[in-house]
Amino acid sequence: MHPAHLAAKSNRIEGMDAMKTAAAILLGFALFMTAAIASSDAAPASCGKASWYAMTSLTASGERASLNTMTAAHRTLPFGTKVRVTNQRNGKAVVLRINDRGPFTKGRIIDVTKVAASQLGFLNAGWTQVKIEPLNKLDHPRVQTVSQTC
């Protein structure tokens, strides 16, 4: 075989190796991003104190607050995230949608609406220990009783 043909064949092989390497890198990146997105849907649970608030002005998300909606305020979860909030004292749980920022009281991890506090059974107490579990879009029972603790 002529040296020029050998050089061309060598370049084609090197080009194919480079393409395979690039494809492997892209595939790895795609798998990494898929895992990152999936894990954000299943963020870890957190435990702490919850309180309730009665507000009728605009929330941080821009919607009008209501005492009778199943919503909550959280410092970092994205607006629209659904969370299961479980009262650790009685096992009652509700699913709430994050639509506001807060709480701004030290030691608290979530503020819920009045109706949510009532369903969780701590309206009169004003606060309780809760477990917060971010939910994916396919898993959101309205109300249930659970016995999990943090």
Descriptive account of the structure:
This protein is of the alpha+beta class and 150 residues long. Helix content is 31%, strand content 29%. It has two helices and seven strands. The protein has helices at residues 3-41, 114-120, and strands at residues 46-53, 71-73, 82-87, 92-100, 108-113, 127-134, 143-145. Strands 1-5-2-4-3-6 form a six-stranded mixed β-barrel.
Structural features:
single chain, 150 residues, alpha+beta, six-stranded mixed beta barrel, 2 helices, 31% helix, elongated
Summarize this entry quickly.
With 150 residues, this protein is an alpha+beta fold. It has helices at 3-41, 114-120, and strands at 46-53, 71-73, 82-87, 92-100, 108-113, 127-134, 143-145. Mean pLDDT is 78; it is low at 27-41 and 138-148.
Alpha-carbon distance between the two ends: 73 Å
Order of helices and strands: HEEEEEHEE
* Biggest sheet descriptor: 6 strands, mixed, barrel
Strand order of the largest sheet: 1-5-2-4-3-6
Mean pLDDT: 78
Q: Helical amount among residues, as a percent range? A: 25-40%
Helix/strand class: alpha+beta
DSSP strand count: 7
Number of helices: 2
> What is the 3D shape?
elongated
In percent terms, what proportion of residues is strand? 25-35%
Low-confidence regions: 27-41, 138-148
Return Rg in Å. Answer: 25 Å
